[in-house]
Amino acid sequence: MTVTNPITGLGASIQRQSTTGQAVDAVRQAILSGRLLPGMPLREAALATELGVSRSTVREAARTLEAEGLVRYQMNRGIVVAAITGPDVVDIYAARAAVELAAADALTAHRDPAVYANLADLVDQIERAFDRGDTAAVLDGDRLFHATLVAATGSPRLQRFYGQLQQEQRLALALAEQASRELGRTADDHRQLLDALHGSPEQARAELTAHLHAGAAELQRLLDLLAQRRQLTHRKETEARHD
Predict the structure, then answer these.
(1) Which of 12, 56, 126, 230 has the largest count of CB atoms under 10 Å?
(2) CA 189 to CA 130: how far, in whole Å?
(3) What is the CA radius of gyration of the chain?
């Protein structure tokens, strides 16, 4: 009796996954860097040609990006870059505040030197990335800073919940960083937040609240700016068709 090898073909599967992963990375970076804006359609055939992959690979990559909240499927439009709405901004930052204020309370209560050292290293990383205009590195540092803060609660459930929230807010954070450039912010404020976390619980809560409010406000202003640009583009296209 012939025994079938149950792992035959694994090498090919790994290669396909590697190709899909590279496609995911390329599109994700384009979205998070602001080269692909919310609402922009991503044509399957054009993407496959540009990336040098098959259309099935593009579809696999799109499923991963959809799970990350970066793209969505729309009827009659196919894959589009996910859009963040005003209510999304309010909800995302309300959820962040609920978790991160509890984290600030835990950190100022226990004063763990290791957590403060990790946060300081991340602030240095964020500032260096900000100075050289490396959006992806700024976003990575920001996510790690706030995840490290939440880890100070010592609650695995809060950390899991916050991990899910961070996954959902990746596009919002990318847009917030884009807002810092579009709206003229010339410095990052994580060091100011870190200084407050070394202070009293009241100082920490106040600065963290201000930090989150500022992020939400910047993001909302950018959404308004992008909406104005879309309206202007639509008006110009309409006028051109009538000429």
Answers:
(1) 126
(2) 11
(3) 21
Classify domain 86-229 by CATH architecture.
Up-down Bundle (1.20)
Residue 137 pLDDT grade (very low, low, confident, very high; cuts 50, 70, 90): confident
CATH 1.10.10.10 residue ranges of the chain are 10-81
**Is there a contact between 38 and 47 (Cβ–Cβ < 8 Å)?**
no
pLDDT at 145 over 50: yes
| pLDDT computed for residue 51 by the predictor | 92
What tokens were used for 150?
Answer: 């939440």
Whether residue 46 has pLDDT greater than 80: yes
3.40.190.10, 2.60.40.10, 1.10.10.10, 3.10.450.50: CATH of 10-81: 1.10.10.10
